Amino acid sequence: MDDLLALSIAELGRAYRDGALSPVTVTEAALARIAETNPSLRAFNTVTAEKALQQAEAAETNFKAKVDLGPLQGVPYGIKDIYDTAGVLTSCQSRLRPDVVPDANATAVQALEDGGAVMLGKCATIEFATGGPSEDTLFPPARNPWNLDHVPGGSSSGSGAAVAAGLTRMALGSDTGGSIRGPAALCGTVGLKPTYGRVSRRGVFPLSYSMDHCGPLTWTVEDAALTLGVLAGHDPADPGSADVPAGDYMAGLDTGAAGLRLAYPVNWIEEQGDADPAVIAAFETALEVFRDLGATVEPVALQSFDRYHACGRLIVLAECYSIHERDLQTRPELYGRPTRERLMAGAFVRGSDYVTAQRLRRELAHEVESSVLGTYDALLAPTFVRTAQRFDEMPSNPMKLGGMMTQPFNVTGSPALALCSGFHENGLPISIQIAGRMFDEAMVLRLGAAYEAATAWRDVRPTLSQDMAAE
Amino acid sequence: MSEESERVLFEALVARAGLNFEPGREEMMFTVARQIFAWSDAVRPAPSAEVEPATAYAPATVAPEVGG
User: Fold this and answer.
1) Distance between CA atoms of A147 and A467, rounded to whole angstroms?
2) Active site includes A193?
3) More exposed terminus of chain A, fewer Cβ within 10 Å: N or C?
């Protein structure tokens, strides 16, 4: 991969401000990389090359005039294709929306534009951020850059694939049951699900009103921190937005893990009957890394993983069904089959199930926030207990989620960071997630940065060109 | 709930929702429904009555103590 595309957001920012690099040069390199790889990788649905070059030129003009709009000025990025983008198709990957071009940007997109960032285009998603990878949607599914025969995870699939393959340093995703952390895990990137309410969801097509979170996928933890600094803030136009001041996510980033108390939910891990032993072994090795960094790491027991998972799935299914009910009845054939069947399953959730799940949610949020994180600084868990599946091994049952351990932190609303914690002997990435107290993204980022600095996983990139040549 | 009862419930919910499945997929959707019925059991027993539904996570909705 071009060395230019391997530079982090932080490194790019320094080079721009020193005059050593131009945003136009970097954007041209990114567009060339997309043109080269996207026919195989399918990470982008829509590439906005003309707009990107205009924004890059504007950033270059700003740098020359000593106008600085922030850490993302001149930085190319991608956007999951469920975020509204003014004048640019926002398809949700669906044949129900082949020509939906919004008039206005989602709040998060506008924050990036106001910060001088450079939009490369719209990244592939799983249709309506649910279902499974499917060829019967408006655009073909993104593929995993570590092995094109494997899925990149979902639903922010193109975002994960694009960041891992070096097409972009950052891409926006959304996370309702793990849709930022899942692709981050399977593609070996960083994925940050901020606290519920931390980043505005206005203008982002909903999957589940009370579970949706917006956040970034990046290659490094520092880049996630820089991006969150731009995205975070109260938005009165989002009913779920929290009126809580944004933090300084860079200030404590290099302060390490010494003296911190960390927990891991031992019973959740024991409950994962389909776990790959190599992934669990990698998680245990990651715990040792934190111990070596001077943290205390102890097991804790929580209510069962199944209870957290069931609570989350019932709420998501009921809420997404309410959004899609009319279309499922009147034009179901326009949905891809996995999406259609996943959404229809919401009809099997009864009203009392939904209310009971929402009440349980309070209890579970309390368990994590007060009972565990009242004592510990963060909670560690594998992100996935398996590596990415092959496309041709995806289950026919649309409810089989393939070893994700992410849903509990959507239930609790806690901030959670996924980052690469090694590679399986099959060559695919493995991931750990770090969950923290509500609105304490600074702690999960600090721990992520400490782990990242202590390991060498950021030095390894997928050799995408070899896979493409074999096709 | 017996499998027979689950099937009656499944058929009633499908009819109530006005859904049409792709040919050959009805049994798969019954399997999906049974998974959801199992999740319905997994979230019970219901929490104590003072735990109202939480549909938003502003700090004030998370902070209150639950169950004393």
Assistant:
1) 7
2) no
3) C
Alpha helices in A298-336 (DSSP H): 305-330
- Token representation of residue A80: 């999951």
Q: B43 and A397: CB-CB below 8 Å?
A: no
Cross-chain Cβ contact A240/B56 below 8 Å: yes
Catalytic residue list contains A155: yes
Q: Give the tens place of pLDDT for each residue, A354-401.
A: 999 988 998 899 899 988 999 999 999 999 999 999 999 988 887 776
Q: Per the CB < 8 Å rule, is B32 touching A356? A: no
Q: Residue A108: which residues within 8 A CB-CB, separation 6 or more?
A: A83, A172, A199, A200, A201, A203, A204, A214, A231
pTM of the model: 0.95
What is the distance between the terminal CA atoms of chain B, rounded to a whole angstrom?
33
pLDDT per residue as tens digits for the range A27-78: 999 999 999 999 999 999 999 999 999 999 999 999 999 999 999 999 999 9
Substitution target from A348, A356, A396 for chain B, most B beta carbons within 10 A: A348
Cα–Cα separations (whole angstroms), residue A301 to A271, A291, A415, A438: 12, 20, 20, 20
SS (H, E, C) A265-301: EHHHHHHCCCCCHHHHHHHHHHHHHHHHCCCEEEEEC
Helices then strands (H, E): number in chain B?
A: 3, 0
Strand order of the sheet with strand A296-300? A44-47, A118-123, A76-80, A170-175, A213-218, A190-193, A416-423, A429-435, A378-382, A261-265, A296-300
Catalytic site residue A200? no
Q: What whole-number distance in Å separates Cα of residue A236 and Cα of residue A189?
A: 31
Residues of A363-392 as b/e, b for ≥16 C-beta within 10 angstroms? Answer: bbbbbbbbebbeebbbbbbbbbbbbbbebe
A-chain residues within 8 Å CB-CB of B13? 347-348
- Structure tokens that stand for A62 in this block: 């700003």
Q: Which of A127, A23, A131, A130 is nearest to A77 (CA)?
A: A23
pLDDT tens per residue across span A425-470: 999 999 999 999 999 999 999 999 999 999 999 999 998 755 564 5
CA distance B68 to chain A (A): 11
Low-confidence ranges of chain B (pLDDT < 70): 47-68
Q: Cβ of B36 under 8 Å from any chain A Cβ?
A: yes
Q: Which chain B residue is nearest to residue A355, measuring alpha carbons?
A: B53
Task: Write the ipTM.
Answer: 0.91
